[in-house]
Amino acid sequence: MHIFNQDLEFFEENRTCSYFSDEISDMRYQYLNNCDIEDYQKKLERGWRRFGKIHFVPECKSCTKCVSMRIDVKNFEFSKSQKRVLNKNKDTKLYIRPPSVTKEHLKLYDKYHSFMNEKKAWPYSPIEVNDYIKSYVDGNTEFAKEFLYVRDNNLIGVALVDVLPESISAIYCFYDHDYDYLSIGKFSILSQIKIAKELDIPYIYLGYWIDKHHSMGYKEEYKPFEILKNRANFNQVAIWEKYKH
Fold first, then answer.
1. pTM of the predicted protein model
2. Which run of H or of E encompasses 112?
3. Distance CA 14, CA 37 (A)
4. Which of 62, 88, 96, 182 is deepest in the core (most CB within 10 A)?
């Protein structure tokens, strides 16, 4: 029997942790063909993330190092260094549209991950078009967007971003390290903050933050931010507190 287009929920225990080689993780997943704005907002508030049609949240029994965080947009003020990043990119063009895939997307994705493999020993193999679609194009709803950063008619950065009335969720970003002087990763987050301020969106969800982690610690730069203090299910209140350190 073949069942198509069925929503699923499943739990994976004792999987290899993505952030610490000496830790294991437990993850809850939902495969959803459709997720409306109200339900997705509830998921974001409770620490869930999305790649394509897969939604997931860590439920690790022995570790709480991964902390869900969100930028307090209303009270965020651009620092001098952040203003310099914005100024450096005054000639960088930004296009916002529904997620897509082109040869330029795939080439840039592979170039970025090859670089990170050499720099930070990230696992790497060239991505297939179907895998890119499953992770970054599928689940393309009314709130799914891609931010394309273009310089000299070249695609130099792609950010996958969900834009909801009450929140922005920064899903993933990859960029060309030949343009390191532009700090495209930082520029992408700062651009999202500017847009959130213009649209009066109160929070930007940056996913999981790990204090002083070599890949995740950078998120602390975007203060003030709040952290999720509990693992609330959909019938419980999610408790967010301002990070004070």
1. 0.91
2. helix 103-120
3. 31
4. 182
